[in-house]
């Protein structure tokens, strides 16, 4: 219904100008009122779409949570449970993919300002990247187990530390999305917290990579390659979280000025 009203408003403005049914002052005032209605409706649709983004965020968080579970199982020596946990990662990631496709379809039909559509679209895609990279990290962990590559406790502990921070960041993304409609200023503050976590992860990653490279001669090229790739995948997930925070900043400012 909102989309219908917005399109009707736009059509009426064009027709009134084309047919000359009003003088310039009347046309200008009518156009201003209809433009105001269009902007208001656009913001309302944006808020409805953001509520679906929360559902998507929840599914992405589920992928990260299962990556944490996989690392904890490895840390505790419960290697036999790794395949079933990875299957949960796959199922949860597919659910996130389905939600992403639904959101993209909704965006294609929604009447939004072009920049708003662009930033919401970017938010959806960056969130989906978090799930994709987390799944990739989990897949490499499972490959390592299958081919007999053993990751020592120091490596796993540091990797788990990074992944727990990724989980914290996703929790903040969920919180920011909930705040963005009711309290854009609070959402901006939460976005700042996500950025700080990303900076902490950068420091831990640097330390962990130094450890990985120091062990390459001892552990061999396969261990070294897999260990680095897993760290990079988790880091990529965290980077996408930071990009989501940037999208939230834009949407918060946009809604605050509506």
Model description:
The chain has about 260 residues and is an all-alpha fold. It has two domains: about 45 residues; about 200 residues, Up-down Bundle (Methane Monooxygenase Hydroxylase, Chain G, domain 1), CATH 1.20.58. It contains seven helices and no strands. α5 runs parallel beside α7. The longest helix is centred in the first third of the chain and has 52 residues. The protein is elongated and about 60 Å long. The N terminus is likely disordered.
Entry summary:
The chain is mainly alpha-helical. It has helices at residues 2-19, 24-75, 82-109, 114-146, 153-182, 184-219, 221-256.
Topology as a string of helices (H) and strands (E): HHHHHHH
Q: Look at the structure and name the CATH superfamily of the largest domain.
A: Phosphate transport system protein phou homolog 2, domain 2
CATH architectural arrangement of the largest domain: Up-down Bundle
How large a portion of the residues is in β-strands, by DSSP E? Answer: under 5%
CATH topology tier name of the largest domain: Methane Monooxygenase Hydroxylase, Chain G, domain 1
Count the E strands.
0
The average pLDDT is 83
CATH class of the largest domain: Mainly Alpha
Instruction: For the record, give the distance between the C-alpha atoms at the N and C termini, rounded to a whole number.
Output: 20 Å
Low-confidence stretches: 1-22, 29-42
Helix/sheet category = mainly alpha
Large-scale geometry: elongated
Count every helix, treating DSSP H or I runs of 4 or more residues as helices.
7
As a whole number of angstroms, the C-alpha radius of gyration is: 23 Å
Total discrete domains: 2
Largest sheet: none
What fraction, in percent, of the residue positions are helical? Answer: over 70%
